[in-house]
Amino acid sequence: MQLTDEGHAFLGYAIDILELEARARTQVAHGEGVDAHRLRIGVSSGLEAQLLVSTLRRLHQDDPALDPVLRLGPYSAIDGMLERGSVDVVLAYRNPEGEHAGATAFRRLLDAGVACVCSSDHPLAGHAGTGVEGEELLAAGRIAVANPHAAPAAITQAQRSIGLRMNEQQVMMCANVEVALALARAGIAFTLMPDIPALHQDGLSFVPVRGARPIALGVRVRRGRQRTLVDRFIEALGEELAREP
Fold first, then answer.
1. 93, 173 Cβ separation under 8 angstroms
2. Which residue, of 28, 138, 145, 232, has the fewest CB within 10 Å?
3. Which residues contact residue 117 at a Cβ distance below 8 angstroms, ignoring those fewer than 6 apart?
4. How far is CA 190 from CA 55, 129, 169, 180, 211, in A?
């Protein structure tokens, strides 16, 4: 079972109510100033949360009182939280179809090439140094494609650009990007992902797909409303995303 879009929208408001209650109790008990160290971050998958680990560690070393709050949900839900002010910043990919008008703005941190992600013993892994053309992937076995309702549009568009040209027996539909990566690590299929250094892990090969449009990774923030802590987070995140593991 899973929540409908309406359920996720309601969940966002319910979380807001519970957080307001907790903040009220904390501030009454301990006084004001708690929010100066609180950073509320929206992510649409567990994979995105993992991308934040080194950044949060770095900020925590600088400020032991850091109080990060990570909220997980479909992008439509966390983007709504950002517009309402329930989160301060959202990890996001630029939508290849264009940006919607609203109270938020996208800030690019990294332009990542598209990579074919497969197990280290997959036949495609031998092309890691030279890359592959999209046409070569059509006969390279099965592809794992994430559910477009549970993954950023930039990623699903890259995956579907190949998957839609393959026969249905070759396409493995997955609940999210984590499942797609698990199938790739197991050697059962390959998938397409942005080539972000922080995603590189033992057991996986990232093979550049030549000619593919780069994917922009960054954050989304509310227009005209930034706190010093958010600025520090964005600067540190940009540096950590580009750092080789």
1. no
2. 28
3. 181, 184, 190, 191, 192, 193, 204, 205, 206, 207
4. 29, 17, 14, 8, 18
DSSP one-letter code for 212? P
pLDDT band at 46 (very low <50, low <70, confident <90, very high): confident
The H-or-E segment that residue 134 falls in is helix 134-137
- pLDDT tens track for 4-39: 767 766 776 677 676 666 666 655 545 444 577 899
CB contact at 8 A, 167 and 194 = no
* Residues 223 and 98: beta-carbon distance below 8 Å: no
Q: How many CA atoms lie within 13 A of 71 on its CB side?
A: 30
Please write the tens of the pLDDT for every residue from 61-120. 999 999 999 998 887 788 888 988 889 999 999 876 666 667 788 999 999 999 999 999
* 50/178 Cα distance (integer angstroms): 11
Q: Do strands 215-222 and 143-146 pair parallel, antiparallel, or not at all (unpaired)?
A: unpaired
How far apart, in Å, are the Cα atoms of 71 and each of 15, 118, 154, 201, 222? Answer: 9, 29, 21, 24, 16
pTM of the model: 0.79
